[in-house]
Specification:
Radius of gyration: 30 Å
Oligomer: single chain
Distance between the termini: 62 Å
Largest sheet: 22 strands, antiparallel, barrel
Domain TonB-dependent receptor-like beta-barrel: 300-772
Membrane topology: Multi-pass membrane protein
InterPro entries: Beta-barrel_TonB, Beta-barrel_TonB_sf, CarboxyPept-like_regulatory, Plug_dom, Plug_dom_sf, TonB-dep_rcpt-like
Structural class: mainly beta
CATH architecture of the domain at 588-596 and 622-814: Beta Barrel
Keywords: Cell outer membrane, Ion transport, Iron, Iron transport, Membrane, Receptor, Signal, TonB box, Transmembrane, Transmembrane beta strand, Transport
Helix content: under 10%
CATH topology of the domain at 588-596 and 622-814: Maltoporin, Chain A
Number of strands: 47
Protein name: TonB-dependent receptor
Strand content: over 45%
């Protein structure tokens, strides 16, 4: 038996020695897209294969040994990889772009890098996709540090807002491919005008504080840098549909050719979103499209983007009065919208905001040498629209008309409907020149020149009685022009483990307007402002996973349109100044990524509403000499197990105004009462903001996420609820006596499952249940206190947010 066993082993040895193995895997590009048809070969054996429609390849019947794999695909660099084969292996391969990837130059000129001494968060296309059920873009950024989002309609569709570190959207700089998006006059960013833009976004960086130099409005709370669709090398067709509470529906189609002939690509998107809103008569009808065509040369890229958004939303921007919310006997006490009410108790169906905005961008990028690259863009934005209002018993004199006599009766007042129009053009050029003389040193020279022309005018389109008003009568017109020029230079030098950063920006603004405003005042002003915004910082790397940083930055910001039109040159406010100190620690390992950031933002001449009246009797924002924000931000993502991860953020801050004076109109005697507060809280600035996302992947392609957000108490004005001495507050319930937003804690649940079948690359099923515990809360509000009958009377308005609601989605990718 021993001899027989030895003989069998001897006979089998040649077969064991020549055992056959396999190499298989997937071939993708740097964006994670599969590359069907990519070639892979083994040089030694002169054998090869091609990737299938899903990017998968398989090389079989390979004897043990050392091999060199070679993978190639048109438009990509050749990849070689050495493999020691002694068992079957799975090897996934990622091919790098073979042509100049200039689209990164477009955004990196105004972005923070990995070691920049700046607080920032990067969001990828996948990060945005998993939360994109149809809500506006601010809601997709809700889990980033120090962010508070609000919705006029209560469900995140329609008019929404975002605050970063307590600063509203007019103090948050927004760019799309480096091109300014903030409105030149109000300085706000209205994402409702770009519905479903997230479906055409490749990535977003959210910076907090002054941040790096950028184009457009001054960043006083933060900046949002958006990069739209970039190169996709394989053709695709994506269909996505969502529907849910409040008759909300979202339909999106994305199409792309992939890379044609190694040089051309065309991408397109068409979207429609509709919702009734949680608030009564807060409906939204939104439409948008995005088309992008690109040419990729060996050392250059030329891309043309055309995108458009149309919105028609019923006005809900006044909120719900506190006395309605506090009346639990009313069936709709939290959703009542009083705008557009007619004398018979019905509502005016056209109490709407109606606006169309078209964007045209031409982006060109050129690699001039191994050390120098250039990016430039021409852009044009055309916006035109109106908001329509019904006004009962309006005085004709308020519209520049003389009362008329009809049938022996003098018509001094009439019911009417009016439209207030904005017709604007915004165009200009942006540029950036990057120079990398050596690996540890780089310079960027960038800037922009932009011009804005805006026509503000109003028409009366309907009157109950003719009152001598001709059809479509124009009762005011005011034309404005704004030129915005900036140039910045930035450099980074790395010596050993230390990187030194310096950034200098000069910005010049010219603003003028002429005509009659909507109050029929003849206004004409112009102003020129010059700003210098220096920034310096240093980062020290302990190793490839840990670094600490510190920075100091200066920001300046001009007054907005209302600050000018509601004042004279003698009374108009000054520009604002911010000195921003930041320091932090970042860590990035395979199991944990996170950081701690300390900030101290010292404002000079911050503009806020104080209730004071200027020399023309208008209530305007006034400069307060000293105010500050200081705090600590924490964020992190922990991979607990292969299937379970937890991401969380927290911001603890103190937001104060020193020596604040508030004025209240005293209607008893026509005077103004005054409150002087040595130190008070800045409005809409919670001292604690926290978020959490616990994500479980129980099966391949499946995810269950439990998402939470906590917002601490916020004040509606800057008095911290303090009233003038000797004036008691009227009312006997919390909603009437308090000028504040109560703290709230809200949780959502998100479920997604992705799988594929034969000809369908991906089928995605999703469900998001918002406010799963049915919390009643308000995320925004306004207050208008005055003195009547010897008492302070608070006129408070709140924006209640939706109770439990859901959105479900189905998507197909081909």
């Amino acid at each position: 038996m021993k001899n027989l066993l030895a003989a069998l082993i001897a006979l089998l040895l040649p077969y064991v020695a020549s055992a056959q193995f396999s190499i298989s895997g997937k071939i993708i590009n740097q964006s994670g897209e599969v590359l069907p048809g990519a070639s892979i070969s083994i040089i030694k054996l002169n054998r090869g294969a091609q990737a299938d429609v899903n990017g998968n390849y398989n090389l079989t019947n390979l004897p043990a040994g050392n091999y060199t794999l070679q993978a190639s695909y048109v438009g990509y660099q050749l990849l070689t990889k050495t493999v020691a084969l002694n068992s079957s292996q799975t090897i996934n391969l990622t091919l790098a772009n073979g042509v100049f990837s200039a689209e990164e130059v477009v955004v990196t000129a105004t972005r923070a890098g990995r070691n920049s001494p700046t607080a920032f968060t990067n969001l990828s296309k996948k990060d945005l996709e998993k939360n994109n059920f149809g809500q506006d873009l601010p809601y997709l950024l809700n889990q980033t540090p120090s962010v508070v989002t609000t919705s006029d309609a209560g469900a995140g569709i329609g008019y929404t807002g975002i605050r970063i570190r307590g600063s509203d959207g007019s103090r948050v700089n927004v760019t799309i491919n480096g091109i300014p998006y903030n409105d030149s006059e109000s300085q706000g960013s209205f994402f409702v005008d770009l519905p479903d833009i997230a479906s055409s976004v490749n990535n977003i960086q959210v910076q907090r504080g002054v941040g790096t130099s950028t184009n457009g409005a001054g960043a006083f709370g933060g900046s949002i840098n958006i990069q739209t669709t970039t190169r996709r090398d394989t053709g695709y067709a994506d269909i996505s549909n969502s529907m849910g509470s409040f008759n909300s529906v979202k339909n999106t189609i994305n199409l792309g050719t992939g890379l044609l002939g190694g040089h051309f690509s065309v991408d397109g998107r068409l979207s429609r979103i509709k919702s009734d809103g949680y608030i009564d008569r807060a409906s939204s009808q939104l439409k948008s499209f995005f088309v992008s065509g690109a040419y990729y040369g060996k050392n250059s890229t030329l891309r043309a983007n055309v995108f458009s958004g149309y919105e028609r939303t019923y006005q809900a921007w006044n909120g719900v009065p506190d006395y309605i919310i506090s009346d639990n006997s009313l069936p709709n006490n939290r959703t009542y919208n009083e705008l557009g009410i007619l004398p018979d108790g019905s509502f005016y169906k056209d109490q709407v905001d109606d606006y169309l905005q078209n964007h045209y961008q031409l982006l060109y990028d050129q690699k001039l040498s191994d050390k120098v690259s250039f990016s430039g863009a021409l852009h044009y934005t055309k916006g035109k629209g109106y908001y329509e209002e019904y006004k009962a018993d309006a005085s004709v004199e308020d519209y520049g008309l003389t009362p008329v006599v009809i049938g022996g009766t003098t018509i001094t007042n009439t019911d009417l409907a009016r439209r207030r129009w904005l017709d604007n053009d915004f165009y200009g050029v942006t540029y950036a020149l990057k120079y990398l003389p050596q690996d540890n040193l780089n310079f960027t020279l960038g800037g922009a020149y932009n011009r804005y022309k805006g026509a503000h005018f109003g028409n009366i389109i309907y009157t109950r009685e003719s009152a001598g008003i001709p059809p479509n009568y124009e009762y005011y017109r005011d034309d404005a022009t704004k030129n915005d020029f900036n140039i910045f230079g930035r450099g980074e030098l790395k010596t050993g483990n230390t990187t030194v950063f310096a950034d200098m920006q000069y910005r010049r603004i010219y603003y003028s307007f002429l005509g009659f405003d909507r109050n029929l005042n003849n206004i004409q002003q112009n102003a020129t402002l010059n700003f210098f915004n220096p920034k310096v910082g240093v980062t020290y790397e302990f190793d490839g996973q840990n670094n600490v940083y510190a920075s100091f930055a200066v920001g300046n910001r001009e007054p907005n349109r209302d600050d000018y039109t509601n004042s004279t040159p003698a009374s108009r406010p000054k520009a604002e100044n911010l000195k921003d100190f930041e320091a932090g620690y970042r860590v990035a390992t395979s199991a944990f990524r996170g950081g701690i950031n300390l900030f101290y933002m010292l404002y000079k001449n911050q503009l806020i509403l104080t209730g004071s009246l200027n020399d023309v009797g208008a209530q305007i924002r006034s400069n307060v000499k000293d105010s500050y924000r200081t705090g600590i931000e924490l964020d992190g993502r922990l991979k607990i197990t292969k299937a379970l991860s937890w991401a969380a953020t927290a911001t603890i801050s103190s937001n104060k105004i020193k020596n604040y004076g508030q004025f209240l109109n005293n209607y008893d005697d026509g005077s103004q009462a005054f409150i002087l507060l040595k130190k008070t809280n800045i409005a809409f600035s919670p001292s604690f903001i926290g978020s959490s996302e616990l994500s479980l992947t129980p099966i391949k392609g499946g995810e269950i996420a439990f998402i939470s957000k906590y917002i601490g108490q916020q004040y509606l004005d800057n008095t911290s609820n303090t009233n003038p001495v000797g004036f008691p507050v009227s009312g006997n319930n919390a909603y009437v006596t308090d000028r504040l937003l109560k703290s709230y804690f809200v949780s959502d649940v998100r479920v997604r499952y992705n799988f594929s079948v034969r000809s369908v690359k991906n089928i995605g099923l999703g469900l998001q249940v918002n406010n799963v515990f049915n919390k009643k809360y308000e995320a925004n509000g306004a207050t208008y206190p005055d003195i009547e009958g010897g008492q302070v009377v608070n006129y408070n308005y709140y924006f209640p947010q939706a109770t439990r609601n859901f959105m479900a989605s189905v998507s197909l990718s081909f």
